[in-house]
Every structure is written in C-alpha cells, then in structure tokens.
Amino acid sequence: MRYGEIDRFQTGLVVPVSSLRSAASLGVGEFADLPNLGAWARDAGFDLLQILPVNDTDDDPSPYSARSAFALHPLYLRLDAIEGADGLSDEIASVRSAMHDASELQYGDVLSLKREFTRRIFDRHDPDRLWQETETWVDANPWIGPHAVYSVLRERNQRRSWKQWPQLRDPTATDVDRFWDARPNELLFHVWLQCECDRQLRAASEELDRLGVRLKGDLPILLSEDSSDVWFHREVFDLDGRAGAPPDMYSESGQFWGFPCYRWESLAESDYTWWRARLTQASRYYHALRIDHVLGFFRIWRVPVTSTTGMLGFFDPAVPITRRQLHDHGFDDARIDVLAATEGRVDTHFPTERDYQKIEDLDERTALMRRLWNRVLIDIDGQGERYRPYWHWYESPLFHSLADHEKDALHHVMGEDAARQEDLWSETGRARLSMVDGSTDALVCAEDLGAVPDCVPGVLDDLGIFGLRVERWTREWDQEGQPFIPPSSYPRNSVCSPSVHDASSLRGWWDELDEAGRWAYWRSMGRDDAPPTTVDPGFLQSILERNLAADSALCILAVADVLALDPALRPEDPTEERINTPGTESSENWTWRMPISIEDLATHGDLTSRVRAMVERRRARPLG
Question: How many CB atoms lie within 10 A of CB 62?
C-alpha cells in the first residue's frame, strides 16, 4: 500500500497487536481491533499506527521469533468473523468474558483456545468446497505450499524441530509437490487458516486506510531455525552460524539469539528473490515498513553454534586480520595461537560455552567461561589463517600480560583493521538494501540501533530509507558528559521515538537513570534547577512534546507512554509498562496488555484532547 506524500510533520502510535484489549477480542488483541484503535488515534490527531511483527511464532510469545517469513499468526484472528463460527458463538462469548479482565496476556492459554476453536470451525466446512474457494488465493501465495506441508509434518512429529524428523529433513520441491498433490485435510486446514488470517488483516488495513490512518508493519530480519523457510529454503540460510549482538551496557556477555544467519551470496545470485517476496507481501497490508535490525544487512554479529552468549562472536562480513599480517607485526605462529586461545589444540575436542553450561557449580562454570573468553583474536573459520578481534581484546588478562612492544603492535593491527571495514560495510549494505527499490511501494524505515557503523546513515539516506532516533540513546557519546542530541536537530528522513518495545517506558527510564544522567537530560531541556525524582504527567508531557518537536518527518509514541498522561491509566510501578527485556527469558516478557479497552479509551475525553493538542502543534509546524 502506498504511503503517500509526506507534506507535513506526522505522528504515530506504536503498540503490539497482542497488547490490545477490546470488548470483542478473546484474551489478546486481534487484527479486527486495529480499526477501532485507529478511530481513536485519528480523533487524537495521529497519522499512523505502528504494530510489531504478526508472523506466526507458534508457541513462542516473542513476535521476533517467526516460524515463517510469510505466514500470519492465527492468535490474532477474530473467531466470530470466521464463516462457520456462528454455531459456537455462546462458547466463544463465555471464554471471551472470562479472559477479558486478565491483567497480563496468558499467551499459552489463549493460543490453545484459539487452536481448539479454529479446528472446530474448520471441521464444520466441506473440504471440497474449501479447496475450490482457496484455489485462487493459493495460486497468488506460492509460499503456502511449503509452509502448509511443513506445518502438517511438524504436527505429525509431535511438534518437534524438523532436524529431529525421521523423514523429509531436507526436502526438495518434488517432495513438497508430491505431498501437496495428496491433498490431506490436514494440509487444507493450514491453507484455510492462513487465507483467513490474510483476509482479516487486509480488511483491517483497508478500513484504516478509509479512516485516513496509515498502518506501519514490522519485518523481523531473522527467522527461527525451526521455521518453514529454513526447512524448505536451505539455500537461503547458513546453519553454521548464529546471529546475536556484541556486549554492551545492557548485556555484558552479549546476546545469542540462536537465529541462523543468511547465505547472502546465494540471495544475491537470485537477485534477492526471497527477500523481495517478503517485501511485496508486506505491501499488501502496510503503508510503511520497519525493517528490524537493518544493521544486519551491513554486517551481522555472527556467533558460533556452540555458544550460549555473544562473547565469542564477530562481525560478518569483515576484512579479516590474516596470519601474514600478524607475522609482519612481529608475532610468530606460536604467539598467534596463544592470542587466539588455540594453543595446544590438536584433534581433541576443544571446550565450548555449551560444554561449560553443563557444569552445575556456578563458580566453576564462571571461572571456565572467563578462561574461554581470555583471548585477543577469534579464529573465524577454524583454519588458523583469518581472524577477527575479540570484542574485549584490550581488557583481557591475556592482553595485559603481554610485553609493551606486543601491546603496541596489537594496537596498530587493530587500528588498521577498524579503518578497513567501513568501505566494505558501505558496499555490502548498499548492495543488499538496493533490492527494496521495486519490491514495495510502502515507506521503508529501518531500526538502526546498536553499534552503528559510520557508513549506515549515508547509505540509508541515499536509498530513501528512514533511520530511527531514540532520544535516550541519541547522544554525543564521545564528548564529555555525553550530552543528549536535541530532537530538533534530528535528520528529516528519520523516525523519532522516545521509547521502544525493547526498552523501559519513559517513567521506567527515568527511574533507571543515575543522578548524573538525570541532570544531563534536565539541562538539555534548558533547566538549571534540580531535576524531579519521578515522572509525573506534566513532566511526561514535556518529554513527549520535546520529541514531537523533532525535525524527523515521523514521530512515533508508545501507547504506554501516552496512556500514562492520564493518572487513572498509569500503574504505580513503571516496570509494569515494559513490554520486553532483551537477552532474558523472563515470564513477564511480551505479556503487557493495555490497562483499558479500546472502547473505554474513547470515553477518556481529557486524554484525547490533551494528546490532540500536542500532536496538532507538531502538525502545524511548517515542514520547510
């Protein structure tokens, strides 16, 4: 769907679909809730709604753990809107009533109920008629064949990963066609289910379009290994490496996401056909797209499959440090093996993080992990010829044990290495992201947070892709005091957002800041008195208005931050507003629900008026 011309500053609202609450939904937000929220958003002056990914994640509540790049999650279906559900209306209504007031999303329970009801609704249909009715849709969606076959085989194998199946672990197109030609009813169920998901999301999107509210979707860059795409499109995925994130202020050992990396060379040979298909399908629903972790198109933090953290990862692609370079700087083979922590390695098993995770004694496990991490270089392919720097090389005990001349030589090697990467990453990102042109008519935005290469903003701008600016992380990190960069100086082709789903709410962020951080932000607002200790509605409005004054073409606010302007809708504990904490497996992740139904939200006229006045001040500013 075409976004249209941006002829004024625009404002959006972001929320996970799962967090919506309405009188008609069953324990979770549903596609059909989006137009009702859109109607309130329009009344409050917003131009667009942004949602998190709605791909099918099966039993995993994280919307970024997709089991298909194309299949939508049946969790978000409105059961009553499915043909054939009328005979189950009383049962559905009873369950809906019981689930409505739950303060948190009961993901497993809701998913189980929706699986049961959709099966029962499906069983009320005539299979021959359904095959005929879905034929045109199937022809227009070629991904459904492999996905439906995968889904059936997974159920037949007690929902185990395809790597544990006794048969068809490595399928050919002929295998899938043969299975499809048999047309079992199990297959038809998954076809019908996805056809219904597509119908309901498209209907919601079209209704939002009629309301004048644009819909922005989210494309997770990576997929679960146990997904129909990895199972069928093995040429696209590299199962020898896993994606993650390097250590940072929020995760001292980095993150191991566990998702396979891509075979970018194979994708390039096909002119990125698989990625183009993803973008084209997303354009059926969305006026704008957010590409998750766009930095992965430039370089991914590649982690060994034997890891459990991100500590032993490295950026890929990257110009390697070669053994010859190290020789040229005075390191002999024995010393290089010491630097890469491979000394004494022969043909015996070399311990990994996964081996050490089996050790029950925490102190022993930690000591062995630190020993494993005590290195300067990462041997990137195990051949002892090409290396990348260990993330904390300059802090490792091994480095500090070296002679001064060795330390100086390594600093020189690492300086040369860093200078060589930017051109490669610029060329790589530009080549991979160029496929966006011609694949979608939606406005494309990028999530470019983290350790951002210097080349990224320029490449995104050249390709017409909006970057992201989150105020708490948009600072002059190299300057004394790390001052905040005012939103009024953000680039026009960007999205400004005061908080995101992987971070605390604004109230929670203020509680997390130390005194120096609070003073730095307070001074950035032009204040020289003492900063407040908590974020009351007045201070919250000041923060939101500061972001609404951004020079970014789009400013997108989190629903929790907007609701907190109303004292009746803010929990006492700000941590209850948080959606997800990255790198954790907390039972609280992805359970947040709006504290009020969409219908009742419309009755909070003071909040609506307050937000509208703020948004209209942004809208009235000349774009210039």
Answer: 16
Assigned token pair, 276: 């183009």
**Measured between alpha carbons, how far is 518 from 512 in angstroms, rounded to an integer?**
9
pLDDT at site 344: 53
Query: Structure tokens of 507?
Result: 């109230």
Segment 459-494, tens digit of pLDDT = 999 999 999 999 999 999 888 888 999 999 999 999
Angle, alpha carbons 402-405-406 (nearest 5°) = 45
- In the chain, what percentage of residues exceed pLDDT 90? 91
Cα separation, 336 vs 110, whole angstroms: 55
Contact 505, 595 (CB under 8 A): no
Using DSSP, state whether 54 is helix, strand or coil: coil
Dist CA 308 CA 104 (whole Å): 29
Mean per-residue pLDDT for 427-435? 97
322, β-bridge pairs: 386
* Residues 382 and 369: beta-carbon distance below 8 Å: no
Cβ atoms of residues 7 and 490 within 8 Å: no
Decide: 591 and 107 in contact? Cβ < 8 Å.
Answer: yes
Grouping H, G, I as helix, E, B as strand and the rest as coil, residue 291 is strand
Name the strand (E) or helix (H) holding 50. strand 48-51
pLDDT digits 0-9 by tens, 132-182: 999 999 999 999 999 999 999 999 999 999 999 999 999 999 999 999 998
pLDDT of 119: 97
User: How many Cα atoms are found within 13 Å in the side-chain-facing hemisphere of 430?
Assistant: 12
> Taking the alpha carbons of 512, 514, 519, 520 in that order, is the dihedral positive or negative?
negative
Give 237's strand partners.
Answer: 262
Cβ contacts of residue 613 below 8 Å, gap of 6+? none
pLDDT tens-digit series, residues 505-553? 999 999 999 999 999 999 999 999 999 999 999 999 999 999 999 999 9
Tokens of 485: 């960069």
Residues 6+ apart with CB under 8 A from 543: 498, 506, 535
Computed over every residue of the chain, the mean pLDDT equals 95
Of the candidates 36, 67, 34, 294, the residue with the CA atom closest to the CA atom of residue 161: 67
Contact 153, 168 (CB under 8 A): yes
Integer CA distances (angstroms), 356 to 40, 195, 243, 352, 576, in order: 53, 46, 20, 7, 35
Helices (H) and strands (E) in the chain, counts: 24, 15
Instruction: Look up residue 163 and give its amino acid.
Output: K
The distance of Cα 576 from the centroid of its chain, to the nearest Å, equals 21
- E strands, 449-574, are 467-470, 494-497, 554-558
CB distance 501 to 589 below 8 Å: no
- Please state, in angstroms and rounded to a whole number, the distance separating the CA atoms of residues 137 and 141: 6
What does each C-alpha distance from 47 to 101, 216, 289 come to in angstroms?
30, 11, 15
Q: For position 348, what pLDDT does the model report?
A: 54
